Amino acid sequence: MVVVNSIENGIVIDHIRVGNGLKVLEKLGIDTTKNTVALIMNASSGKHERKDIIKIENSEWIDLTALGLLDHTATVNIIQNHVITKKIKLSLPERVVDVIKCKNPRCVTSVEPSIPHIFHLVDPKTEEYRCEYCDEIIKV
Ligand SMILES: [Zn+2]
């Protein structure tokens, strides 16, 4: 069992998909010359599961949108005085299936109920998704 709040102040990115930690660290552009950063790879998470964890000491901000795109199943814990003061659940997957429905009445998904509703993220800033079949834009 890894103690997630073992830093005094900072950010812990928990439940990163195993093997994804290094990529997250690189893509988030976390400054390892300014902050003390720990990457814990292949930590145990429950009985049969594994995860990566990143701990960034004395940091209060990370790019949550980028992290959401990289690994939306990760969770972000803000630590103050060894205590988790905030837990952030990520969203914005790049591709979603059967979560949002296309509003275009001429779309094949409106006509044929057995077809999965597949959407792709257009722009994380505007939270818009594009229908795979008809290019209809849906704002989430
Ligand atoms: Zn559609």
Tally of separate domains:
2
Number of strands: 9
Taking pLDDT < 50 over at least 5 consecutive residues as the criterion, the unreliable ranges are none
Secondary-structure arrangement, i.e. CATH architecture of the largest domain? 2-Layer Sandwich
Which short descriptors sum up this protein?
140 residues, mainly beta, Alpha-Beta Plaits, SH3 type barrels, 2 domains, five-stranded antiparallel β-sheet, four-stranded antiparallel β-sheet, 9 strands, 39% strand, elongated, binds zinc ion
Secondary-structure map:
Layout lengths: L9 E8 L3 H7 L9 E9 L3 E9 L6 H7 L4 E6 L2 E7 L5 E3 L10 H4 L6 E6 L4 E4 L5 E3 L1
Antiparallel strand pairs: 1-3, 1-4, 2-3, 4-5, 6-7, 7-8, 8-9
The protein binds zinc ion.
Q: What does this entry look like structurally?
A:
The chain has helices spanning 21-27, 64-70, 108-111; strands spanning 10-17, 37-45, 49-57, 75-80, 83-89, 95-97, 118-123, 128-131, 137-139. With 140 residues, the chain is mainly beta. It has two domains: 10-89, Alpha-Beta Plaits, CATH 3.30.70; 95-139, Aspartate carbamoyltransferase regulatory subunit, C-terminal domain (SH3 type barrels, Roll), CATH 2.30.30. The chain has a five-stranded antiparallel sheet, with helices on one face. A hairpin with a 5-residue loop joins β8 and β9. It is elongated. The mean pLDDT is 87. The protein binds zinc ion. Zinc ion (ZN) binds next to loops.
